[in-house]
Amino acid sequence: MADEVLDGLELKEQAWWAHDAEVTASGLFTMVRRLPALIRDVLVLSWQTSRVDTVVMMAATLLSEIFTALGLLATTDVLTQLFSAVPTAERLAAALPGIAAVVGAAVLRAAFREAGQWARDRLEPLLTQAAQTRLVTLTTGVELAAFDDPDFHDQVQRTSSTATRGPSMLLWAVMETVSGFIGLLAVSGALGVLHPVLLPLILLAAVPSTWASVRAARVSYQVTAGIAAARRRQSTLQDLMTQRPAAAEIRSYTMRPYLLAEFGRIYRWVIRYELRAVRRQQLAAIWGSAFGGIAKGLVYAALGLLLWSGQVVLAVAATAVLAIQRAGAATEQALHGVNQAYEAGLFYEDYVHFIADAAARAESSGSTAPPAETDRIRVDGISFTYPAADTPALTDVSITVNPGEIVALVGENGSGKTTLAKIIGGLYLPQAGTVTWGGVDQHAIDRTALREKIAVIAQDFTHWPLSAGENITIGRHDSGAPLDEVLTASGADAVVDRLPYGLDTMLDPSYQGGTELSGGQWQRIAVARGLYRDAPLLICDEPTAALDARSEHAIFESIRRHAVQRTVLMITHRLASVRWADRIYVLEHGKVIEQGTHAALMERSGVYAEMFTLQSRAYTEEG
Ligand SMILES: Nc1ncnc2c1ncn2[C@@H]1O[C@H](COP(=O)(O)OP(=O)(O)OP(=O)(O)O)[C@@H](O)[C@H]1O
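A: This is the predicted complex of the input protein with adenosine-5'-triphosphate.
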């Protein structure tokens, strides 16, 4: 199988990978240096999520380890008392308080461990939710242009999957490290008493397995980073193949073999990538275990040597073995914790990086209040190029929209009409030129407040999986225009009347009790949504493309009536509907090539006149 597949497509190197390369190149110690900041961040998140659970988890974990340590010390005491000479009844009696201490410590340790686990189990879903909420709060606040940037999508994909485990993974790893170190501290006292050379030997014995797990963690992170783009493509395809919107097209265009082959191609690529990683991880694990075994053997050999040379007496050999085992377990726990923290840190750093990136992409906004009513909107010499495009969508465009006017944008497909409307609607920022509202630069105006003044009936409006009523009132809820009037003006009343539960009907048949609307019925709902918003500026982008002739006429009449106290920016290919516009701008290849009233443009006999004549001739000749 060739190394074909997605090269040159999603899997080409991306700017975002520069960060991965930096992180994956960072060794354990670099990460250990970065960890304090990450741990602080996760502790703040945990504290904000649930103070009680955070405190209980930390306190209970600490106490449980303290009682483990005390138990071990008491055990060492008891064993020394019992086995330092031949056990007698007196020695047994003298050891009884020590035995009671061992039992008491074990009970308390178990109780605190359970309490810590309970708090941890509560925190896990809370932290996951908090991380996800942070994610969606940020993604809904970034500049719209971010969604035209594939790097942003890859970050979202990776962060969505790691956000769920990053914070809790890191928190648990920190707890495990702390537990391990406390345990180690406790036994090191006992081992120091036995012989000081044993402790460093035990620490050395843990090095091979720690190296193996650090390596495995890095490989696992590299895999996640390396397959992010492929995974996104795979899940997009999976959604298309498993959900309703594309189901009919997949069948009518007999796309199944193609899609399955494409899915399999990506799947094979991902699997090959993952299997290569598994091999690397397994090799590291084999070397780690082999050297770890040898190192452990050396520790016991050292103990044997100490016994043989008489530096450790046989009577305390049991304590020595027990302490070595405890110390080994505690060292492994601590180093495992550090490694887990390293792995979790890699993932969590991704999350933190994304949070910072999303914050940097956050929508900019001025602070000036927008004009009370629409006032004059002037677009002056604007140019705009989409992030993913080579050629500009708009070049040096200037238009004026006066209050109360109906202004139409016409032109062939791809001429830049929607882009211009989106810039006026404050969705994209032009790279050159200005947009002013009543003489105030759009940059200076509070963007959210400005959007409150705008209603958009978009070409690609969203079919929200909500009730019909919510699909109309969304974003305005109870503060819009009178609903009855809106329903009548948009023609949505006829749609709602036929729904089984009226406005309460769910408009998505994939949910219980839900139903689907036709394209034209949906468009009436979209028009109702725009009218309900009751904003001084109404932007209509092809509001009637899916409507029958009678509905289209009715809608345009409604919009004209609506425009009496408001301003309307209208985009349409139905030129008969723009005759009554106060001014028409004709766009071509991102430039305004003609402007004027219908009569003036017809007189000019230019592009508009040609388009209009073509359309009207088509009607008169066929009609
Ligand atoms: N998100 C995007 N990323 C890159 N290029 C885009 C994007 N959206 C639109 N374009 C390009 O910008 C140009 C203008 O598109 P726009 O949607 O503004 O045209 P339009 O006049 O509204 O077309 P239509 O009549 O088909 O709706 C087109 O060449 C289009 O391919």
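Confidence is low (pLDDT under 50) at residues 1-19. The pocket of adenosine-5'-triphosphate is lined by residues 148, 386, 388-389, 393, 411, 413-419, 459 (CB under 6 Å).
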